[in-house]
Amino acid sequence: MTELLNIKNVTYKLNLASILTTVSCTVPTGSIVGLLGANGAGKTTLMRIISGIAQGYHGSVAINGETRAADRKRLVSFSHQLDGANNRAHLGQIVHDYQTLYPDFDQSAYQQLADFLELDSKKRLGQLSKGNRKKFVIALTLARQVPLYLLDEPFDGIDGMSRKKIIASILKWKPDDATILISDHHVDDIANLLDAVIVLKDQKVVATAQADTIRQQGQSIEDYYENIYTGGEQHD
Amino acid sequence: MQFNDKVPIYYQIKQYVYREIIVGHLTAGHQLPTIRQLAVTLTVNVNTIQRALSELIKENVIIPQRGKGNFVTTDQTILTALKQQVITSEFDQLYDNLAALNIPPATMVQQLQIYIDQRKDDQHD
């Protein structure tokens, strides 16, 4: 498999505080990879850097060989949490804005996703429950047709049924060659979806492994991840 | 489907397909669902399904037909061998577990017969 994403020695500081330190990792084309780490480990920051939003880092990030932030933005669909969006806006309006903003936004894919996730376009953003808001974010993110999707904690704080729906929609609408990087601090949700994991801890990539390799050693991905976190504490 | 999270999933999918064939949910010559459909039904990644299928194809249990999809083999020799293989692996486990308890083979046979008779009686009740 070829590498879609190649991150080399990325270091990022914000107001003199280190967020990421010499992070290097690769993600093969067509795979689903879990970016695991506790809250504050730097998962969201790494995704912001990959997507081209966060500037001022050291090191290099390449998607399909493209290293300029402006070029990368076209190749990535990042699950923004719609924090900046107007809560009074109707979903239909936000979808329309996305279409204008992103030439790769596929309206019919969005409609299928919205139908499957039972989203009502006449509702206002502020009226959505936490679960429905997460579903809306997933529908918007997956409707763009790009090589790389970054899903940042798509299941955080939602009920089991919504989680199942979102997982099914990822599996159904992921374009064949597309690659997905999905972050989570609770591995159990996504363990069965993953080809591989990248573990972030204390601003660094501390481990990368294939899901099959972990299980061949009689470990679950959750055990593997927890061992890395608790194993490190013994050295403190 | 519930997976054991300590065993590679592609391996569990292979076992699942074997069982579907043996119990007759999938019959000789039957077409398998598409890879995407299997991924959604079993809630796993497409790559995992592909790995399981490519091994099943290598074992000649599944026969791919260009442009049409994947089919269960119609070769009865392979299907009979498959059934035997699954039965043997069940016995492997049972034998190892009992041998670990220092039970001699003759006693195993005796105990198995008693057990089967008991189960028969239970079902009649």
Q: Given the structure, what is the number of helices of chain A?
A: 8
What would you report as the Rg of chain B, rounded to the nearest angstrom? Answer: 18 Å
CATH architecture of chain A: 3-Layer(aba) Sandwich
Helical fraction of chain A equals: 25-40%
Written description of the protein model:
The complex is a heterodimer of chains A (236) and B (125). With 236 residues, chain A is an alpha/beta fold. Chain A has eight helices and nine strands. Chain A has a single domain, classed as Rossmann fold. In chain A, helix 4 runs antiparallel to helix 5 and helix 5 runs parallel beside helix 6. The model of chain A has no long low-confidence stretch (mean pLDDT 91). With 125 residues, chain B is mostly helical. Chain B has a two-stranded antiparallel ribbon. In chain B, a hairpin with a 3-residue loop joins strand 1 and strand 2. The model of chain B has no long low-confidence stretch (mean pLDDT 93). The interface between A and B is medium-sized, with 25 and 17 residues.
Note the main attributes of this structure.
heterodimer; A: 236 residues; alpha/beta; Rossmann fold; 3-stranded antiparallel beta sheet; 8 helices; 36% helix; B: 125 residues; Arc Repressor Mutant, subunit A; 2 domains; 5 helices; 64% helix; 6% strand
Topology of helices and strands:
The complex is a heterodimer of chains A (236) and B (125).
Chain A: E1 3-14, E2 17-28, E3 32-36, H1 43-51, E4 58-63, H2 69-75, E5 76-78, H3 91-101, H4 107-116, H5 130-143, E6 148-152, H6 160-173, E7 179-184, E8 196-201, E9 204-210, H7 211-216, H8 221-233
Parallel strand pairs in A: 3-7, 3-8, 5-6, 6-7
Antiparallel strand pairs in A: 1-2, 1-4, 8-9
Helix pairs in contact in A: 4-5, 5-6
Chain B: H1 9-22, H2 35-42, H3 46-58, E1 62-65, E2 69-72, H4 76-100, H5 105-124
Antiparallel strand pairs in B: 1-2
